[in-house]
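The data are quoted verbatim for reference:
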Amino acid sequence: MNTPNAMTGWLWVKQGFALFRKQPAEMLTLFFAYMFLNMGMGLIPIAGQVLPLLLVPVFAMSFMNACRLCEAGQRIYPNLLLVGFRSPELSNLLKLGVLYVTAASCAIAASSLIDDGVFWDFVMSQKPIDPKALPETGMFWGMLFAALVYLPAMMAFWFAAPLISWQKMGVSKAVFYSFFAVQRAARAFSIYGLAWAGIGVLLPLIVSLIIAVIVGNATTVMLVLMPLSVVLTVVMYCSFYPTYVDTFGKPDAEETQSTT
């Protein structure tokens, strides 16, 4: 297990863009297929709220394997989305998914200490809230508190799925190694997080302002921002792979042949 230096966090972002540029259409197709499946699961009564989160570790390996193939110069196909379901480690990935659901539920529930349950009710009911009323509800501070509560869990889950799939670790061991790997690379992850905050927030803001000044049409702004947001999301997914490689090394062929 390596300990990347601080500036490695910026390199991870650059490597994410580099991986995306190799096969942008294929990566976008994989992402849209993932979104389509999530929308389909969302239509299932009751279970539709839990399934997408439960299956995050399974689908995470689809994108990790896509990045591995892309790096090796191999073609990415949409059926790669189901690679996690063919993995011998599927049961452990699902157990990890249960931890995802539990941790997220606890974090959202904890927000009730700040906003009197507004954020919890919003997530559970999925009813829209009037934007003008948001400052009065205190939901922003509830969401921020929930994010802080969830942070240790996010550290524990960051590398857990590939450690389970590629290094055949048990769930407990994978979560343990993931947490301390992220802790040891805290400076690199701080730069990485700040870089994505800048790219994900400032870049769309600058683009929207430029378009608003030139065109002055809100519809045009949305038509540009939506695909930009999708591309940035996929690039961010691509950048997860180099965080693993720089910390635990490239997965060997023997480690990955059972998941492709």
Q: What stands out?
A: Residues 218-248 form the longest helix (31 residues). The mean pLDDT is 87.
